[in-house]
Amino acid sequence: MLTLKTEEYGTLEYESDCCINFPDGLFGFPNLHEYLPLCLNDEEDSTLLVLQSTEDSHIGFVVINPFALVEEYQPELTPEELSYLHADSADSLTFYVICVLKNNYLDNTVNLKCPIVVNPDTRTGMQVILNHSGYSFRHKLIEFLHQNPNNTDGEITHADTETKEK
Predict the structure, then answer these.
(1) Most distant CA pair in the chain: distance in Å?
(2) Are strands 164-165 and 116-119 parallel, antiparallel or unpaired?
(3) CB neighbourhood size of 19 (10 A)
(4) For the whole model, what pTM was predicted?
(5) What is the mean pLDDT of residues 83-99?
(6) Residue 118's closest CA among 82, 144, 156, 157?
(7) Are 127 and 115 in contact (CB under 8 A)?
């Protein structure tokens, strides 16, 4: 059993086979290779995670399954990327997008253009750039509330107030 001391989550105990290995690191963090996925929701269903670096306890990324935001999300990987991940097709892989959290939560964004791709069988991952897609580096999370089919009246209820916007 390994331990990791973090400011945000205290001391974490984990097995090394729970980690995801990024041989080339993530964009901007090429020297950090091992991340521990931590569930952020009560259901622990891996829709919303923190990828906590085990090599630098100050580094962690909030990530979300992009299909929870955009049902028709269609990341197309190159044959080289599939080979790197030891996968025959993208169907066998898991995708996450990095959330950028702002002081005003209405300004939070996700990067649909550069998803993190993980082979769940080998626990190996990489971050890719979807060059030939219509996705952007910054999609406001608020945009997806308006697209949610369960939100039929177009109202946004703020978590911190009783205020509603249309």
Answers:
(1) 50
(2) unpaired
(3) 20
(4) 0.81
(5) 95
(6) 82
(7) yes
